[in-house]
Amino acid sequence: MTETAPRPPIRFRGRSFMAMVLAPTQPVADWLSDLDALARRSPAFFSGRPVILDVSGLGLDRAALAGLVADLAARDIAILGVEGAGPGILGEGLPPPLSGGRPAADIAAPDPAAPAPPPPEAPPAPARSLILDTPVRSGQAILHLEGDITVMGSVASGAEVIAGGSIHVYGTLRGRAIAGAAGNPQARIYCRRFEPELIAIDGLYRTADDLGPTLRGQAIEARLVEDAIKVTKLD
């Protein structure tokens, strides 16, 4: 009788992904109109992005929430989960409920016969700043949520730089720069030549159309002032 090799133990994997959170405001119809305007200015903004829907404070019932999810699906925005929904609203036909938190690293199922493992060593402190010596090319997406990003060259149209802290571009900023992505309203954006598709700080954004031509091609600083992005020319 041939013995079969033992199967490997089941492993549970944890993995961290960057998800965009959409938080609609009332009236929802007007918010959807603003979303459509953003999509016209930057058609690929939601392309391939995992999206979480935060409905905290909207007071939606099940039918209204289902309608909102359908409206977003019609715009090719697939919702992976919902935050802030009232009890009993979610269920069949709607995305699952989610809450904040970061998944851990790979987790192996415990073996009852194995001795207890030693306590894990503390991980090294993450780098606070990411410095890129080369330009960010079209189609590239640079993500660094632990601190600032400094680009020694330019950021091309169609490229994206996402930082938990501030963003410094020593060349031309033509793509999208998203600072304070980990919830940092003190984050800022600096660049030597300002020609962006979109800039955002702590969830607030402005597109090229919103920014106008006045500061185009200038060295600028962008920061939040009273829940609005203020862009000023650097001397």
TrEMBL record:
UniProt domain Septum formation inhibitor MinC N-terminal: residue ranges: 10-74
Start and end residues of each Septum formation inhibitor MinC C-terminal domain: 132-231
Pro residues bias spans: 112-126
Keywords recorded for this protein, A-Z: Cell cycle, Cell division, Septation
Keyword Cell division on entry: yes
Region named Disordered: 93-127
Matching InterPro entries: CAP/MinC_C (IPR016098), MinC (IPR013033), MinC_C_sf (IPR036145), MinC_N (IPR007874), Septum_form_inhib_MinC_C (IPR005526)
SUPFAM superfamilies: Cell-division inhibitor MinC, C-terminal domain
A Pfam family reported for this protein in Swiss-Prot or TrEMBL: MinC_N
Compositionally biased intervals (Low complexity): 99-111
Protein family according to the UniProt entry: Belongs to the MinC family.
Subunit field text: Interacts with MinD and FtsZ.
NCBIfam families reported for this sequence: minC (TIGR01222)
Function: Cell division inhibitor that blocks the formation of polar Z ring septums. Rapidly oscillates between the poles of the cell to destabilize FtsZ filaments that have formed before they mature into polar Z rings. Prevents FtsZ polymerization.
Record protein name field: Probable septum site-determining protein MinC
Originating organism: Methylobacterium oxalidis
